[in-house]
Specification:
It is built from 8 helices and 5 strands; from the N terminus they run βαβαααβαβααβα. It is an alpha/beta fold. The chain has a 5-stranded parallel β-sheet, with helices on both faces.
Amino acid sequence: MLVHHTLEAFVALFFTGLKHSGKTTAAKRVASALKRCWVDSDDLMLERLGGMSVRSFYREKGKDEFMRLENEVVEAFLEREPECVMSLGGGAADNARLMETLKRRGRIVYLSRPEGTLLSKVLEKSGIPPFLDGNDVSGSWHVLYERRDRIYSSYADMRIELGDYQDKDETMRTIIKQLESEGII
């Protein structure tokens, strides 16, 4: 499905959500449909780090330096491409400065899925990630989910409830339809 819009006043669209919520897939498909560039903030970080992994940088430099650099690379990219569609890492909610940048520079779309659905996908795709307590996976996920859900909800211009995983084309049509009905595109 190709959407034809006159986007005279198009602003950047930022896809946020927890890990494995579908941010990257949705953002790529929406960008293609809208004929806009797409980028993932993690790729911007990797480009800046010049071969060092994001995880290594975080361990070596710490959370504050990571969040400073994350905001810096997003700001720099938006100076070059102010009308892009961007997917962000699941932890973007923890970076208040970045979330303020996103709010100021475009529209934030929060892709939400049920807590249990996301936890199942996280465990299926990557096993128990280091940010969860191996002795209480469900409990630590619940705390993380609740906190990030609150933050993303507070910044979002639009929240899209996606439910369980479904056909990717259907997901994109749902997102485009909601973006249109909210007057975002």
